[in-house]
Amino acid sequence: NTLYIAIGIGILWSIYGYFASHVEQMQYSVLEQKAGYEIRLYEEHIVAQTTVKGTYQEALNEGFRIVAAYIFGANTKKEKVAMTTPVLETTGTSQTIAMTTPVLATIEGESHTIAFGMPRSYTLDTLPTPTDSRIQIVTIPETKMAAMQVSFLRTNARVQKKKEELLKLLAQDGVVVVGEPQYAGYNAPWTPPWMTRNEVLVEIK
Questions:
Q1: What is d(CA 145, CA 132) in angstroms, rounded to the nearest whole number?
Q2: Cα-flanking dihedrals φ and ψ of residue 195, to 5°?
Q3: C-alpha distances in Å from residue 46, one per residue of 37, 68, 127, 138, 151
Q4: What is the 3-state secondary structure (H, E, C) of the chain?
């Protein structure tokens, strides 16, 4: 029966998604719970990042591939680095973008910085050096962020809409924003859509 086969595939996919998504996450504490968003304080952490150009989805896929190659062994030690979440995407025009840098977003031809958080067991001295020169290892200082959930789908239009909603709420609450919003994805691309955790984040004062 086709229905039972579909249900079985859905169950197996969900089980796989559950275990594939349980990885180390970037550490933060919730400072305030607001209507529609929350304010967090992120600890200082190290990221591996790359900047690529293209449409939103093209850049996300390409950036993910480049940095994923690093953590899967494309480094001087040929050492696998554990995956952590979330994967961060920032849109802008700078070639080297940290989370605290104001950037300009454009519709076509913009640059996207894709960043993976590194496990807390590593330091700048102990992390293996990337063999791909497009990857940078950067320390992100303690940062206050506002975060909003993006349920289910993470299409460009939906993520952009949520970024605008977050900025509007922050403006209404008199919260000062630093730079441009980011997309944060917590799951591997093959995770079932109903199990994904997606957010939009922006640094605030």
A1: 30
A2: -115, 0
A3: 25, 15, 10, 6, 27
A4: CHHHHHHHHHHHHHHHHHHHCCCEECCEEEEEECCCCEEEEECCEEEEEEEEECCHHHHHHHHHHHHHHHHCCCECCCCCCCCEECEEEEEECCCCCCCCCCCCCCCCCCEEEEEEECCCCCCCCCCCCECCCCEEEEEECCEEEEEEEECCCCCHHHHHHHHHHHHHHHHHCCCCEEEEEEEEECCCCCCCHHHCCEEEEEEEC
Q: Is the distance from CB of 178 to CB of 10 less than 8 angstroms?
A: no
* Spatial distance between the Cα atoms of 13 and 109, rounded to a whole number of angstroms: 35
Q: Considering only residues 177 and 87, tell me which one the structure prediction assigns the higher pLDDT.
A: 177
Tens of pLDDT, residue by residue over 92-104, are 543 222 222 222 2
Q: Which amino acid, one-letter code, is at 108? A: E
Neighbours of 198 (CB within 10 A): 21
Angle, vertex CA 118, rays to CA 153 and CA 57, nearest 5: 30
Kindly report the pTM of this predicted structure: 0.72
Q: Which of 48, 46, 40 is nearest to 143 (CA)?
A: 40
Query: Which residue's entry shows tokens 């933060």?
Result: 28
Q: What are phi and psi of 26, to 5 degrees?
A: -60, 135
